[in-house]
Each structure stands twice: as structure tokens, then as C-alpha cells.
């Protein structure tokens, strides 16, 4: 593997430019220069790069440098505990990222071409999968996402321009310069393919979605209003987005819920408070509310989580993970039946994920048939709505759009364009 010192200048030549527009445009041009070569890169080279990243995350010196940068970010962040949890890295978390990279490297590539059918006149219709080219990504101050998205771009043969929240920029630079760029070089791939915007501040995020000629697609991850604002700005400039603005899991304890199972699923849903798919709204069948509330209180008390009980002074879908100082809170509400619970989740929450705990198959069927969100669960936690947990590959984000297109955890398989090819039958 090449030394980290050789990588930064090549990996992000414009990343430290004086203005956000200059930095983003320069990074996009550098990434774009690698697109033709990436389209023809051997599968083995792409997987070699992923395994090299995993190896770098196991190197003691590299890990020490990344953790030191992360500790500096944590000290100066000024964030609430939920957001600090997203920002925080540890040797254990880095080891987990490395395991995901190795798993991704072991995933077979989809065939780039498949025959659909024969056409009249001795012709054949086929479909090709082609890379997008340059994909942008703007995400919250969550440094593990730097590697998650970079790995998906590598596996899909796309170049990328990444921009993270200012609180994580030191950690992101350490990962880009000592893990990603050297690994790409070691695999014979151009380190310029993955760019990191190093100009802090929101203006660089807006610059990212104003470059339709250079960055036609931008993945947006983050909290509510800021991500929605970026998606609107992207639309004004003709840039397509896959946006993940809102989260918050819903869990419904049905009339036929087993208390011990309910307790376990609630606990599994609150293992981390700063993530989007955690338990946010707990619905309880009205006939069991008085019986199950002590069970809920017991789990919440053990985890240090407060319960927001009726009457509520906030919207039912209020996302506690983004409420600084109140992250350790869950909204609780009695409801009448499975259909009512699912309809409430449809109408009052983001549509990310909802689950039901019940021993009654018919009740589960009603709930699952009625809920229209991205992920629906029966006797399981909404924390499972995650690319690695569902598909054994990292994700670029979770798309909750209610229109055709990739929905749910977005992985490398979604970062492609369809091309239809008509050729003579051979």
C-alpha cells in the first residue's frame, strides 16, 4: 500500500480551495476525469480497493490517527448526545466498518448486460447497467458514512464528491487521506475518483447541488429542514437527488402482544439514540395500555429513556434523535386497533419504518397491509432497516420517497443507469 503522505494532494486537489464553489467544482472536475477509466476497471481491482480499506482500518497507526482526529472533532463539536453518538468513532466501530468492507468485497457483481427478449427482424433487446459517472453526497457529521458511501461508489464504478458536516471534517479528512486514497492507489485505481470537500460550512453543501453538468446526482442525508432545503435547491438547478431527511421508527404493541417480546423489541429499538431508525413513537392497543405501560416504563427506566405521555405538546411524529437535550425520549400513545396504528404511522410520521408486536397473524396482516412506509416489521425492531443488516452490504442512505425509484436502503446496485441495446442476433 502506498504511504498516506502521497495521497492527499492527488485525492482532493481542489478540496481546500478558497471558496465553496471553487472547491466543489474543482473536486467534481477531478472526479470526472476518472470516469472513463472506472467504467472499464476490472472487478478484481474494485474489490482489492475495498479489502485494502479494511486492512487500513486494522492498522494500529492508521487507527490511532483516525481516532485522534475524531477526538478533536468531538471536543469542539458542541453537539447534543444523540448527534455526538453519530460523530463518535472507536476502535470497535472502525473494526465493524472494516468487516462491512470485506463483506462488500465478497459480494458478486451483477452481470453488466442481460438479454430481455428477441425482436422481429433477427434483433435482440438487451439491458446494460452503466455507472452514473460522478455522484455527490452530502451527509450529517457522521464520519463512518465517508467510508460507507466511498465503498458503494467504488463497487458501482462511480466517482464521487463527498461533503460532511463541519463537526466531522477532521475525522473525514483522516479517513479520506489514510484509508481511502491509499487503498485506491494500491489497487491501481485513481485516488482522484473519491473527492472530499474540505471547505466547512453550509455553503459547500449548496454548491454541491448546483453543478448539474458535473454532478448529476446527489445523495442527501441529514436532519429534516436542511436536507429538504438542499433537495429544493437541487431541483431548481436540475440536479437529481436521493434524499433521506426524516426518520423515526414506530412500534405498535397489539392486543395480542407478549409482554416479554414487547420488552425485548423495545430494548433492541433503543440501543442507539442518535440514529434514524430507532424507536421514536410507541403505540399501544388501548385495551392493554394500563397493563403494558409498566413494562414500557421498566425498559425505558433501565435505558435512561423518558416517556412522553398524553396529552402531548408536540407533533406525534416529532423526531427525538434530532432534539438536542431530549434525545432519550419516546412518545407513547394508546390506539384502537392495528389498522388505526398503521394509519397513524402513515399520516403522522416520516414513513421510514413501523413494526407490530403481536401473536395474532390476522392482526399482523392488517397492520402490514395498511402501513405504506419504507420498512414494515412483525415482531422485529425497526433498527433492521439498514443496508448491512438487510442485505449484508453498506448503504449510501435510506430513501423514503413515495415515487418510483430506489426505496429503502440504497446500495451500490442502485447507483447505475439502464441502457437499452438492440443488436443483431448472433
Task: Walk me through this protein's architecture.
This protein is an alpha/beta fold. The chain has 2 domains: 4-246 and 407-424, Aldehyde Dehydrogenase, Chain A, domain 1, CATH 3.40.605; 249-387, Aldehyde Dehydrogenase, Chain A, domain 2 (3-Layer(aba) Sandwich), CATH 3.40.309. The protein has helices at 7-11, 20-32, 35-39, 43-56, 60-77, 81-87, 91-106, 144-155, 169-186, 202-208, 224-236, 259-268, 289-303, 338-348, 361-370, 387-391, and strands at 113-119, 123-131, 134-139, 159-164, 194-196, 217-221, 240-244, 249-253, 279-285, 306-308, 329-335, 353-357, 375-378, 397-399, 408-410, 416-424. Helix 8 links the parallel strand 3 (134-139) and strand 4 (159-164). The longest helix is centred in the N-terminal third of the chain and has 18 residues, at 60-77.
SSE order and pairing:
Elements: H1 7-11, H2 20-32, H3 35-39, H4 43-56, H5 60-77, H6 81-87, H7 91-106, E1 113-119, E2 123-131, E3 134-139, H8 144-155, E4 159-164, H9 169-186, E5 194-196, H10 202-208, E6 217-221, H11 224-236, E7 240-244, E8 249-253, H12 259-268, E9 279-285, H13 289-303, E10 306-308, E11 329-335, H14 338-348, E12 353-357, H15 361-370, E13 375-378, H16 387-391, E14 397-399, E15 408-410, E16 416-424
Parallel strand pairs: 3-4, 3-6, 4-5, 6-7, 8-9, 8-12, 9-11, 10-11, 12-13
Antiparallel strand pairs: 1-2, 2-16, 14-15
Amino acid at each position: 500500500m502506498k504511504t498516506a503522505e502521497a495521497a492527499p494532494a492527488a485525492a482532493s486537489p481542489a478540496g481546500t480551495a478558497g471558496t465553496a464553489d471553487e472547491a466543489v467544482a474543482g473536486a467534481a472536475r477531478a472526479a470526472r476525469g476518472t470516469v472513463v477509466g472506472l467504467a472499464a476497471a476490472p472487478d478484481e481491482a474494485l474489490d482489492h480497493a475495498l479489502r485494502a480499506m479494511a486492512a487500513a482500518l486494522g492498522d494500529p497507526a492508521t487507527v490511532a490517527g483516525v481516532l485522534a482526529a475524531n477526538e478533536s472533532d468531538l471536543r469542539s463539536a458542541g453537539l447534543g448526545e444523540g448527534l455526538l453518538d453519530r460523530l463518535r468513532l472507536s476502535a470497535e466501530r472502525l473494526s465493524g466498518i472494516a468487516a462491512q468492507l470485506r463483506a462488500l468485497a465478497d459480494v458478486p457483481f451483477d452481470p453488466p448486460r442481460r438479454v430481455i427478449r428477441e425482436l422481429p427482424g433477427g434483433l435482440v433487446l438487451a439491458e446494460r447497467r452503466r455507472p452514473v459517472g460522478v455522484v455527490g453526497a452530502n451527509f450529517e457529521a457522521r464520519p463512518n458514512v465517508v467510508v460507507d458511501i466511498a465503498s458503494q461508489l467504488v463497487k458501482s464504478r462511480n466517482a464521487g464528491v463527498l461533503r460532511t458536516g463541519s463537526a466531522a471534517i477532521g475525522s473525514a479528512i483522516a479517513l479520506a487521506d489514510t484509508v481511502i486514497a491509499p487503498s485506491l492507489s494500491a489497487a491501481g485505481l485513481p485516488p482522484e475518483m473519491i473527492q472530499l470537500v474540505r471547505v466547512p460550512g453550509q455553503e459547500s453543501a449548496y454548491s454541491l447541488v448546483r453543478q448539474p453538468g458535473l454532478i448529476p446526482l446527489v445523495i442527501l442525508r441529514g436532519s429534516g429542514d436542511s436536507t429538504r432545503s438542499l433537495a429544493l435547491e437541487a431541483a431548481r438547478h436540475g440536479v437529481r437527488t436521493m434524499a433521506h431527511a426524516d426518520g423515526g421508527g414506530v412500534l405498535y404493541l397489539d392486543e395480542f402482544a407478549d409482554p416479554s417480546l414487547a420488552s425485548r423489541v423495545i430494548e433492541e429499538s433503543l440501543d442507539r439514540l442518535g440514529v434514524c431508525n430507532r424507536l421514536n413513537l410507541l403505540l399501544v392497543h388501548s385495551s392493554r395500555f394500563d397493563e403494558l405501560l409498566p413494562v414500557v416504563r421498566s425498559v425505558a427506566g433501565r435505558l435512561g429513556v423518558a416517556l412522553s405521555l398524553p396529552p402531548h405538546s408536540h407533533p406525534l411524529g416529532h423526531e427525538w434523535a434530532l432534539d438536542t437535550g431530549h434525545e432519550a425520549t419516546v412518545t407513547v400513545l394508546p390506539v384502537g386497533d392495528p389498522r388505526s396504528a398503521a394509519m397513524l404511522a402513515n399520516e403522522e410520521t416520516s414513513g421510514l419504518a413501523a413494526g407490530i408486536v403481536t401473536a395474532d397473524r390476522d392482526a399482523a396482516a392488517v397492520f402490514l397491509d395498511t402501513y405504506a412506509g419504507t420498512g414494515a416489521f412483525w415482531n422485529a425492531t425497526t433498527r433492521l432497516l439498514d443496508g448491512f443488516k438487510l442485505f449484508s452490504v453498506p448503504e449510501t442512505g435510506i430513501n423514503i420517497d413515495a415515487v418510483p425509484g430506489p426505496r429503502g436502503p440504497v446500495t451500490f446496485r442502485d447507483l447505475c443507469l439502464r441502457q437499452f441495446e438492440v443488436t443483431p442476433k448472433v
